Amino acid sequence: MSGRLALLYLDRGNGWECLTPHDKDQAALESLSIDWGTDSIDSQPDAPVLRFTIRDRTGSLAGDVLYLAGAKVWVQKTDAVAWQRFDIAGQWQQVAASVSWAELEDLKPSTIPSVPDTGLESVFYGRVTVGGEVTQRKRGDWLVSLYASGMSVLTQRQATQGPEQSGTLAGHHWPVDPVERLDVLQSRLTMLGVPFTADALEWLRRHLPPSLAPYGDDSHPDLITLVRNLASGSPDWPLVYETCERGRATPGSMTVGLPGAPAIIAMLPDGTIATAWQGHVTPTIPAELVMVDETTLGLPDPITQVTLKGKRVTWDGEKSVFGFEDSELTFSDRGLVPDNLTESQKSVSVDSDAVLKDDTGGHWTAGIYSPSDSDRLRRAAVILANSTRLRPQSLRVESRKVDDVEHADQFHAWPGLPLTFIHNRYTPLVARDGTPATAGAWLPVGGTLTYRHRAGEATWSNELDLHPLARDPTLAALRWRDLRPLTCKWERLPEMTWAEWGQIDIITTEQELEA
Predict the structure, then answer these.
(1) CB of 395 within 8 A of CB of 285?
(2) Contact between residue 62 and residue 144 where contact means Cβ atoms under 8 Å apart
């Protein structure tokens, strides 16, 4: 199974040039890789970094390589070939005799636009940075290896003044009202070419705290810090990523990954296993199609608590102004983590601009963030998942085995949809709760997306850093009588051990999961 072609475009100030591989091209893409995300949810992702290698037949590009710094780079994928394009009436008998289904697409290869097409899927947009190398090969051509950073890197360099506050907030800047601050941040992100996506904006507006602490006039945080601290108190544990959107002249944008949001593993009436998470329902990927370290599982470093670092508000009666100082909220495991894993205390910190405590004697009326019992229970579920699930190492999805159209979300440089594995090589390892040690849903939070083009075959692979998603703590364990919705014969059920049944949360229809 061949993957879709990567389309590389470079703009050196004179418009876009297509450097996608073609026969006899002067310069063409050889390979690329994108480092993205984070390897742990206790740190926020940085901007993605692209490394790409161009094959230069004449050396003209290699000789001008120092002037490529600052050039814009856009990486897209060709579209999957639509069935309507196979207009080969009268030739089906000949086709059937000589071409397999996997090879059928080669009869109608995708067109390669000479300039970026905003309707195509994009995987990277940024600018070339300094560094790289030029290598001459024995055949006489040159390999030019360069680096580029995603456009969100600009948010780390923007430490500007926010809207000035007055009255009781004199001496501070940036609004206390979360909606007002979000609007200002969205405006500034838009000017940099990386606005929040519509879905991210919708999520943020629903999860903003009652109030945010402003910054003193002598403090100027960079833009990405303000963005990350907006709703970081949510138990969904938002991580801010750069992503790419279709339909925009510049595809760079910002989204939120939610590794704290619980997942539900369901069995559908026909015996299919699916994962429901954040309004999406995804099928399992057969374990034999996913490459993984065959001998090693990573042991988690147990977490005992989460510390939310925000602010407390005070009142200066003489000056009639508010002041803001550091404050903390602690979330425990609520007794869910086994005692032997909690002997040494380890806390994970989350920075926030939320006001957590009011020491003004009634002067502060904007409200404070006070977590509900449900919020605390969900934090505890995340602590449990992080502390007790064994980690698959070097897990990689590759387009030669996993369709990069059907599972396109797993071939991006930002979080896709959860992965759930049934009946894999680690299934015999059973934890004390009766479920396989690697059971449950896993969210990719970082990794390295790689593309190679060899002997006419395009291959995408994504080596993923996985985060275990918590189980919904409000769901009861599945019981024997809960199997009634199953309509398929036992012989049609996936091959699973009794222990694997323990990770199934519910048996229901796909329509009910999506509701």
Answers:
(1) no
(2) yes
HEC-encoded secondary structure of 187-207 = HHHHHHCCCECHHHHHHHHHH
What average pLDDT is seen over the chain?
88
DSSP secondary structure string for all residues of 225-263: HHHHTSSTTSTT--EEEEEE-TT-SS-EEEEEE-TTS-B
Question: 448: which strand partners?
Answer: 35, 463
The pairing of beta strand 133-136 with beta strand 172-173: unpaired
Helices of type H across 54-135: 60-63, 92-98
Mean pLDDT across 320-330: 97
Q: How far apart are CA 407 and CA 263, in angstroms?
A: 18
Distance CA 214, CA 499 (A): 51
Collapsing DSSP to helix, strand or coil, 502 comes out as coil
Cα–Cα nearest to 227, from 47, 413, 368? 47
Q: Determine the distance from the C-alpha atom of residue 161 to the mean position of all C-alpha atoms in its chain, rounded to a whole number.
A: 30
Q: Is the pTM of this model over 0.70?
A: yes
Say what the pLDDT of residue 100 is.
61
Q: Is the pLDDT of residue 173 over 80?
A: yes
Q: Going by C-beta distance under 8 Å and a sequence separation of 6 or more, which residues neighbour residue 154?
A: 192, 193, 194, 223
pLDDT tens, residue by residue, 85-114: 555 555 555 565 666 655 655 555 677 888
Query: Which tokens in the block code for residue 438?
Result: 């690697």
Q: Round to whole Å and give the CA distance between 25 and 131.
A: 25
Pairwise CA distance, residues 213 & 50, whole Å: 36
User: Six-digit token pair at 371?
Assistant: 């977590």
- Strands 297-298 and 391-392, by their bridges, are antiparallel
State how far the Cα of 64 lies from the Cα of 15, in Å rounded to an integer.
Answer: 17
Closest alpha carbon to 240 in 222, 258, 255: 255
Q: Identify the CA nearest to 255 among candidates 404, 368, 150, 172.
A: 150
* Calpha distance 413→33 (Å, rounded): 10
Separation between Cα atoms, residue 258 and residue 467, nearest integer Å? 10
Reduced to 3 states (helix: H, G, I; strand: E, B; else coil), residue 129 is coil
